[in-house]
Description:
Layout: H1 2-31, E1 41-47, E2 50-53, E3 71-74, E4 77-84, E5 91-93, E6 100-102, E7 107-115, E8 118-124, E9 130-133, E10 140-144, E11 150-151, E12 160-162, E13 165-170, E14 175-180, E15 185-190, E16 192-196, E17 203-206, E18 209-211, H2 222-225, E19 226-230, E20 236-238, E21 240-242, H3 248-282
Antiparallel strand pairs: 1-4, 2-3, 5-21, 6-20, 7-8, 7-11, 7-16, 9-10, 10-12, 13-14, 14-15, 16-19, 17-18
Helix pairs in contact: 1-3
Amino acid sequence: MSKIRRALMLSSAVTMGQLQQSIDTISHNIANINRTGYQRREDTFSDLLFQQMDHQRVPQPEGNRLTPEGIRVGNGAGVSQTALRYGQGAVQETERALDFAVAETGIFFPVQTEIDSVTEQAFTRDGAFYLSETVPGADMWQLVTREGDVLTNGDGEPFIVPGRANDFTLHSDGTLVAELAEGGTALLGELEVATITRPQLLEATGENLFQLPDLAALELEAGDVLGFQSAGEAQVIQGALEQSNVDMAMEMAKLMEMQRSYGMHARNISQQDEMMGLVNSLR
């Protein structure tokens, strides 16, 4: 019986560690509830390896028993997957010309980011962009995210503004026009959004950025999962930002569920330890 108690304690200890991981995921969601374009995470659990322990030497009548005889002793439950949930967040008007809200799920703004001094393509739903000078003193500007990642079109080309701009206008066909401070306008190009047909392949790299994995290793081509289209009125709303898709009420309910389960397993360890202490004191 002491082996069973130790196994139950081990099962509870392992499960507590996995529950803590899920609590961390929920806490991460709550911490980013006000982050523009944030996509919430969700954990799913599965049973770990278990074994059936039978101690009855004489078979007993089953009666109305619905479970096998003996005790199923396992290693607890573990987080089998942490998935990104690409739901649409609420759209909030800002009336800022360089704020763009995506109005559909599965579409992202393509950007260029630097990872280990290497420029790579990434995607974000955070549509708050700013002007950044390409070369100091050159009076040439490009559109970047708040972290400095460069907004690009589908071909990976950045939007260059020749001189400072007072205002920006996104037309219904996706063309982006800048009104220059020195007068006149400049056609910056066509604002495009990336359509990810298999968003479950995206990997979060931090700072609200996502990247596709090595598609060749998955025997896929870029055209199988990635496409670009003009940012028309149906896909992008100028002067607004998409808020995170985190539901505070749902996250708090899940947090309470995880905490109660954590407390139950903690009590199980305490009770098993107390029972083993009583048995040892009787010897």
